[in-house]
Queue: 3 jobs
Job 1
Amino acid sequence: MKNLKFKGQNIPNMPWEDRPEGIKSPVWRYSQNPIIKRNPIDKISRIFNSAVIYDEGRYYGIFRAENHSTLPKLHFGISPDGLNWQIESVPLELIDEAGRKNNLYYGYDPRLAKVEDKFYITFCTDFYGPTIGLIETADFKTFVRRENVYIPFNRNGVLFPRRINGNYQILSRPSDNGHTPFGDIFLSESPDLTYWGRHRHVMERGGTGWWQGLKIGAGPNPIETDIGWLLLYHGVTNTCNGYVYSMGGAVLDINQPSKVLYRSKYYLLTPELDYEVAGFVANVVFPCSALLHQDGRMTIYYGAADTYTALAFSRIDLILDFIIENSERVGSDHEIGK
Ligand code: BMA
């Protein structure tokens, strides 16, 4: 793809490896995966499905860490290079909007976005069942818990990195209280991050690939290009041995992101290597963050088998070409507002 315009960052030491000879896939794995292994810090057994951001020379991470109670909590970490992480051994301390202490019973599958001058963590939390929580921070020192975005049940809340048509925008996947055997991606918007509405359907499970036949959920925060928003997501299939989580890709309209322009019928990454096919939950590839360099290189952080944190690489032009070439027409034309 020539003359593609996109919003990349200047990240001098972004984790990176060129595509190995002989590999044709638009996404390839880091040869030293996983970057976070089992029992990475005292009393924490597994860190996976975690979010990373690069801002003004520093890497910050919000990690899904499970201690020996197996309850997931959000932990803060920093890194000099995006590979070696210093992760706090205790969960994030939060205050509510009135300044009172407010700590989470559980928090998992965080995403991390910078919108204007603040960072926002969206994640799954408990509110009489799982739903989407929201934390705001300006400095990664004070973390303010905002109102939950939804009533239960909902998962995979993922913010866009800027307002669109004046409003904040969030993707989500309404769910149930268990291991949800269904699920499409929806969009909601808000003028103030408190009141959410104008809900739209974005993408349905299925399409023409069984790998995404059961449910789908947004992955990393969408990436802006002049073709549209690149959305990486997870797609799940139900087999006789349980669920299998792969990564897929789609492109959403820049001004009306409930409109899907392209969606690949093929997965971009599926569990193949030992650290993806075996672990606490077998066969899970779960992308939560992507860094995009201004030269087009992409580094994707994904959870592997609910046990490890791993990296994969791509290039923005390569991934978009693949999605467009292998795109299929899905979704309906009779939605309100489409
Ligand atoms: C989902 C979430 C993810 C997890 C996946 C596979 O419902 O809980 O955090 O990776 O199941 O276990």
Job 2
Amino acid sequence: MQDEEAGPGPGTDEDPREAPSGAVGAKAGVAPGLWLVATPIGNLGDLSPRAVVTLRAAEMILCEDTRVTAPLLARNGISAPLAALHDHNEAQEVPRLLARLQGGARLALVSDAGTPLVSDPGYRLARAAMEAGVFVSAVPGPNAAVMALTLSGLPPQPFLFMGFLPPKAGARAEAISRLRAAEGAGLSATLIFFEAPHRLAECLAALAEGFGDRPAAVARELTKRFEEVRRASLPELAAHYAAHAARGEIVVVVGPAAVDAPSGAEEMEAQLRAALAAGESLRDAAAMVAAATGMPRRQVYARALEMGREEG
Ligand code: SAM
């Protein structure tokens, strides 16, 4: 959510209403097509001059909730008409919007906050426009996941953005164990999750259960008056937020699986090599190694086949 009350966070010295000279009101430089325009995640000073120019040039601005976007536009002297595009109507709206785009319209798409499409509506429309050969471009800007990553103190790459974990405990535990399995197969990436404040404590407890004593960070209210980044181990963060209910908007960042120990994938390959060298068939070697490592038999068998091909 955008925060009208945002304090003087970073970047507010400049008046976001000022577009580069000569650009105000000009449609020149803003090609017809679909423009995916990032908007602030809290601090209204983070709307870029190019976002203002692009939104001013649009014949129509598609947004999730007109009540959220209208004040931002008014504040920046943008008067293009607004139309709602959200998860409940996007599928049915795509054909009509695509026809407009194919007819040469210049449309902008924003979400309530941050970068559209990222855990927000717009993917279906953008994809349909691309497939139809319509010009699609973006005005980049704020994104809570990347900002949290940069402030987490955890390795910035590779990272894996997971969006929201499932809200129900069982499905969430399953999603976490799938990630653990991927790590067992060699994935070593910083993990980024969005979470709602009322689920933060249980989410952190589930992450601590799945990933153990890993370094992590909870980034809260980014770019707003009460911005906070708490860096600690997953069990410490789980204990903290069990005792102190969190408020506001939240991103959880979890450090990568340790890389110094041989990865699950390396371990699996070493065991496969040993079993094949001992004269086991591919099928038997895969079954034995799957049983020993706990990895899915299909995955081990596929790797055994690849190794056979690689070794000629
Ligand atoms: N598309 C947006 C973006 O690019 O950041 C994300 C939209 S998603 C529906 C909303 C979630 O993003 C929130 O529930 C929270 O997890 C995270 N988020 C958005 N703004 C945030 C902020 N200012 N501080 C921390 N997390 C934020």
Job 3
Amino acid sequence: MNSFSNRLTRLFGIRYPIIQAGMIWASGWRLASAVSNAGGLGIIGAGSMYPDVFRYHIQQCKAATDKPFAVNLPLLYPDIEKHVQIIIEEGVKIVFTSAGNPKTWTALLKQHGITVVHVVSSSKFARKAEEAGCDAVVAEGFEAGGHNGREETTTLVLIPAVVQAVKIPVIAAGGIGTGKQMLAAMVLGAEGVQMGSRFVACVEASSHPAFKEKVIALQEGDTQLSLKQLTPVRLIKNAFYQKVQEAEMRGATKEELAELLGRARAKKGMFEGDMEEGELEIGQVGALFDDILPAATIIENTWKECCLGLEQISDTFTAK
Ligand code: NDP
């Protein structure tokens, strides 16, 4: 199955339809270039980078790979104009936008010949992204880590709904970290998958080692979607999460929750390694991982397992 080709691999110019999610504090140039060199699409997560840091990561990535790579731009980012300028100046060819209105930046990026993909959590937002001129969408279900939709639509329901709603290619995300999960998503009509949590527990991720260890120790039920009044985010249940829970249970206002969250909590947890007071964003699928692996091994294992899963299920259906 080495010569796999579909609309998505052709759109990005990649070998396998496996995309590494842009994740704050985890996905710098080392991870992105390692994924791209292994035949997937690596993404630099711009959300936690000041503009000069962002430019440095793009330049390092260009030096580390001659394969296509992308950047993820959360549209909530405070200095977004500067990031867009850097993307254009540095000649980045693929941009994944998230957490905002796709109409705002898509036209400008496309005028510069950039392929634009937007992350959505519903069919309604997928249609908006298509109308805005996006080339593909990432449909991310409830199981996902980090920022999440308010409606709690699971990946199993979201993917067929989005596939039906739009004509552009759909990339499945949320709860996908193995080849068999990838196969399931593709059976539902996705043309590729985006994996985040799997690439946090990865040698090349810039996440703090304590966070990587925490991810591979996770059990079912160890994460929960929280802070729905602010920006919904799936968190590991640590001391900070317990404080959020208590505040939400007693009916804390949005302002009180924002004060409790404070500033740079995500950095404190995922980058600086405070496993109790930091904000630890990860998906449910973390409960399935036992190892911190190199990016190339993750890509290879995922693709092999996906192809093997296809053979096994075909055998089951055709067995007499
Ligand atoms: P906070 O407001 O709590 O803190 C801002 C953090 O971002 C700080 O740690 C700061 O680093 C860093 N930062 C980078 N560039 C800037 C800048 N230009 N101005 C201010 N701070 C900057 O935000 P969060 O940490 O919760 O989120 C940061 C960004 O990441 C947001 O844009 C958000 O939308 C995005 N995000 C995306 C997620 C996703 O799923 N894609 C998930 C969560 C967040 P320092 O401490 O060194 O000053």
